[in-house]
Write a structure and sequence with these properties.
elongated, polygalacturonase activity, Pectate Lyase C-like, alpha/beta, 3 domains, Glyco_hydro_28, six-stranded parallel β-sheet, 867 residues, 16 helices, Glycosyltransferase, Immunoglobulin-like, 58 strands
């Protein structure tokens, strides 16, 4: 499901998230945007290439509206109690050290006010901010640390009350103050399009990574301590002497639209390390650093020091890009206070040594739990998941009591790791191991779950150890290595690194080549879905193979006379009409009259087909007085096409009227959706005695309707489609709103809390096809292209033995008696139907999705060329 929301607001800046369904950090296709005032005055516009948009130069306390293809959202800048211009307090680019002038300027900021630094490069020693203020670095402004540390202030380990102010590797220690230091700075904002340069490459900071000089450790670039409700947005923060951004004992922190950059060989220059913090949001941040990109800490236990320990919990990391670095997201090894409830989603990990890394050792104590990584792609990460309880850090890290595999007594110093979940994680170019886990024999790792995870191996990989512990053998191309660890699930092979579009076309080609008639050769709608998908592929690509498949398959069902295999018009089965659309297309492209003659067999059935009292075709003779949503796709689009061929406007009008009447009959006001079926006679046990509606909303039934509406809209003129237009728009908006966070739609579409409910792929394919077409036809304002990419990722999986397959397809569902059971239309019934793979009811719509994507891409290219 696409996401559109305001991430952060300061007096003069806003950051927004505008993420299509399958987007991670960057957008494959730029997304246009317009920012307006609430009155509609244009403020700014452009094209997003990342999912997070940062806008500055706004007015305080004003309402704004962001308009994108994903929708419109409103945001309000925070009020400002007073603006202080740094230049007016003596800050100037020519000053060798602007620290004193900046200190005066900070002191002049009223509560709720802003200090603005304009474009230019300003050298400075460390500055200490205060509570309830905004530091605003405009685009082009750079606050750069001086290189001489002679007069650099030190931040003590504790304040006068004994409260810890900062740590070094998890223990309280004095450090040189950070360039930006904030202690007790509640309601603080650091924002703007400018840069904070920590000066790590100036002076000698990187030459003594593990030492103490002049009684202090190396400084951070931004250090926050005991500060709640802090926002950091828009900035580039780089060139840090050690950790770049280090919040300690803070709550309600927000980081968005940042770039955090350090040279790859700079020591201990982690990107963002929340330590003993609660409720931290990190969204849309790009990291490229010399150590870990994000390292979540909770202090380190010492024999006589534990008062500094506190947990880190409720950390949300999303839409970030982690590049190079030792680890993308790391927990520990300083975790003695406990780390709990970390969610990492929609991120890219690129060429980091490890992806998700959890590290600890005996003596730490504490617990790591509730870590979830999902919908994330890794590229060239040697070990995507590394969990190590024998991490050989610290001077005693290689001692026998730490590294022995003999169970030790369990005490408060025994660390525990549990409840780690990876879902829909892909990793290309793995060299060592997909997952490497090493727990303690006395406290094994518990509850590691892998779901829908897949990888490819780097062909030129060399063996190496995946974990920093003694006694770990080198590995190459291992899938999962685990000792003293409980792991459920597997890591599957991804298809070889070929062009995904080419692979998908190969899948469709093989599917059509191997297709066997669904009902033993009898004319049926299931085959018709495959024919319709092949038709659209032929229209989109012009490749003869798709037409050849249709002719081969359809010709086998067309007899002399003409006749259709297994077809009995007296069944009055509306399902049998669908495949007639293929006959119309074959007549159009070949000119052979036998195809139109066969189509007219179906037309004669419709001329005599029984109808409800309101004039809508019965679903089948054996389902009297019943209108099913399925039938609206099976019959009316064919009737309109045949009417156009025969130049019979009455057939076209009748078809549209039937659909309009059926929508009136089936609409459920309470849900804004349409019932699977309506019994006009109110006789069926599954029908509501007042409305005639069936019970629960089955997604594929609504999928049939959605496809019918867009196909009818394309076949007809705007005036002809007018009776259906408003209801179509409302339905497409409702469908889009019901998309799940995983990108698909539920089997019982409107009940996400229903036990056993699941994301079903055939309905999802129908919805994506309909939304793709609807966006082009002006019936829906959203962007369906990301939905299509997400669908393909989720629905098409590597097949055991090679190739691809479409998974998680509901085999069949209906209403009334069928095969010795009664289908009552309840939610529980729909969930009871079995799942299958590669069913035409899924693959046909999936072909339609890809064909529509190709057609729309060609039209966009043609439009650009025309401009």
């Amino acid at each position: 499901m696409s996401s559109l929301r305001v991430l952060a607001a300061t007096p003069r800046t806003l950051s927004f998230l505008a993420a299509p369904a399958d987007a991670r950090h960057s957008l494959e296709t730029p997304l246009s945007w317009v920012l307006e005032t609430a009155e509609g005055t244009l403020v700014a516009q452009g094209a997003m290439r990342k999912v997070v948009l940062f806008v500055e130069g706004l007015e305080p306390g004003c309402d704004y509206r962001l308009v994108t293809p994903l929708g419109t959202i409103s945001g309000t800048t925070r009020p400002c109690a007073g603006l202080v211009e740094a230049a007016e307090l003596g800050v100037h680019q020519t000053n060798p050290d602007n620290g004193p002038a900046l200190t005066r300027a900070i002191g002049a900021v009223p509560p709720g006010g802003t200090l603005r630094l304009p474009a230019g490069r300003y050298l400075s020693g460390p500055i200490f901010l205060k509570r309830d203020m905004t530091l605003y670095l405009e685009s082009g402004a750079e606050l750069a640390a001086i290189g001489d540390r002679t007069h650099w202030p030190r931040l003590p380990a504790r304040d006068e009350a004994g409260r810890v102010l900062g740590t070094w590797e998890g223990l309280p220690e004095p450090c040189y103050a950070a360039l930006i230091t904030a202690v007790d700075c509640t309601r603080l904002a650091l924002t703007g399009g400018g840069t904070i340069d920590g000066g790590g490459d100036r002076g000698d900071w990187w030459s003594w990574p593990k030492e103490t000089r002049d009684g202090a450790r190396r400084p951070r670039t931004v250090h926050l301590a005991h500060s709640d409700c802090v926002t950091v947005s828009g900035l580039t923060i780089r060139n840090s002497p050690s950790w770049t951004v280090h919040p300690y004992r803070c709550r309600d922190l927000h980081f968005s639209a940042l770039r955090i950059e350090n040279p790859p060989n700079s020591p201990n220059t982690d990107g963002l390390n929340p330590e003993s913090c609660e409720r931290v949001e990190i969204t849309g941040v790009a990291f490229s650093v010399g150590d870990d990109c994000i390292a979540i800490k909770a202090g380190k236990r010492a024999p006589d020091e534990t008062e500094h320990l506190a947990p880190t919990r409720d950390v949300a990391i999303a839409h970030c890009r982690m590049e190079r670095g030792h680890g993308a997201v790391v927990i520990g090894s300083e975790m003695s206070g406990g780390v709990h409830d970390v969610e990492i989603a929609h991120c890219d990990f690129i060429a980091t040594d490890r992806g998700l890394r959890i590290k600890t050792r005996r003596g730490r104590g504490g617990e790591v739990s509730g870590i979830r990584l999902r919908d994330t792609a890794m590229q060239d990460v040697p070990t995507p998941l590394a969990i190590n309880a024998f991490y050989f850090c610290d001077p005693d890290g290689k001692d026998d009591w730490v590294q022995s595999r003999v169970p030790a007594p369990v005490t408060e110093t025994t660390p525990t790791i549990r409840d780690i979940t990876l879902t829909r994680v892909t990793a290309r170019g793995v060299s060592l191991a997909g997952a490497a886990l090493l727990g303690l024999p006395e406290a094994p790792i518990e509850g590691v779950r892998l779901s829908e995870c897949s990888l490819t191996f780097a062909p030129d990989a060399r063996p190496d150890v995946p974990l920093m512990a003694l006694g770990v053998p080198p590995v190459r191309h291992a899938r999962i290595t685990a000792q003293f660890a409980q792991v459920t699930g597997t890591i599957a092979d991804m298809p070889p690194d070929k062009d995904p579009a080419h692979m998908l076309m190969e899948y469709f080609d093989a599917y059509a080549r191997n297709h066997r008639p669904y009902k033993g050769g009898a004319w049926c709608y299931e085959d018709g879905l495959v024919y319709r998908g092949l038709e659209l592929l032929h229209r989109a690509t012009g490749e003869a193979r798709w037409l050849d498949h249709i002719i081969r398959l359809a010709d086998a069902q067309i007899g002399t006379g003409p006749s259709l295999a297994g077809y009995d018009p007296s069944d009055y089965n509306i399902d049998n009409i669908l495949s007639g659309r293929t006959l119309l297309y074959l007549h159009q492209v070949t000119g052979e009259t036998r195809y139109i003659a066969a189509a007219q067999l179906l037309g004669r059935q419709l001329a005599q087909h029984p109808r409800t009292r309101s004039g809508v075709y019965w679903h089948k003779l054996r389902y009297p007085w019943q209108v099913w949503l399925d039938g609206l796709y099976m019959g009316p689009p064919f009737q309109i096409g045949l009417g156009q061929h025969l130049r019979d406007d009455r057939m076209i009008t009748d078809a549209i009227t039937q659909v309009s009447t059926a929508l009136d009959m089936a609409f459920v006001t309470r849900t804004g959706l349409y019932a699977h079926a309506v019994d006009e006679a109110r006789m069926q046990p599954w029908a509501d005695t007042d409305t005639g509606h069936s019970g629960a909303h089955w997604a594929r039934a609504i999928g049939w309707l959605a496809m019918a509406l867009v196909d009818i809209a394309e076949l007809t003129s705007t005036p002809e489609f007018a009776p259906l237009a408003a209801r179509s728009r409302a339905l497409f908006d409702r469908i889009a709103a019901l998309q799940q966070p995983g990108g698909l739609w539920l089997q019982v579409i409107d009940q996400p809390a229903l036990p056993g409910n699941y994301e079903e792929t055939s309905a999802s394919a129908m919805f994506v096809y309909a939304l793709l077409r609807a966006s082009e036809l002006g019936l829906w304002r959203g962007d369906a292209e990301p939905l299509a990419r997400c669908l393909l990722e989720r629905a098409v999986k590597p097949k055991p033995g090679g190739g691809l397959e479409m998974v998680e397809i509901c085999h069949v569902a209906g209403l009334g008696p069928f095969e010795d059971r009664f289908r009552d239309g309840s939610a529980e019934y729909y969930l009871s139907e079995p799942l299958c793979t590669d069913d035409p009811k899924g693959v046909g719509p999936l072909m339609m999705v890809e064909a529509t994507r190709i057609l729309q891409a060609e039209r966009r290219s043609a439009a650009c060329a025309g401009q």
